[in-house]
Amino acid sequence: MKMLKKICVSLSTLTFILFALAFAGCADKEAEAEMARLTEKNASLQHTADSLQHTLDSLNAYNDSVKKSLQSLDMGI
Question: What's the pTM value of the predicted model, to 2 decimals?
């Protein structure tokens, strides 16, 4: 969960930088290249965050299933 928060913070930071560069309206080739690089990195990080979220959701569903199974085995002893 901590890693997911770090990724979300990174995504927010990259998004902010991208918008700042876009609004600056620089025609500088270096700035455009950096913007393209950051856009690609942002997409990669977003994919990673989505994948981690899917894994977390799956593990939570499995955890709930195991809890229910254990509760059904409880015989009041």
Answer: 0.57
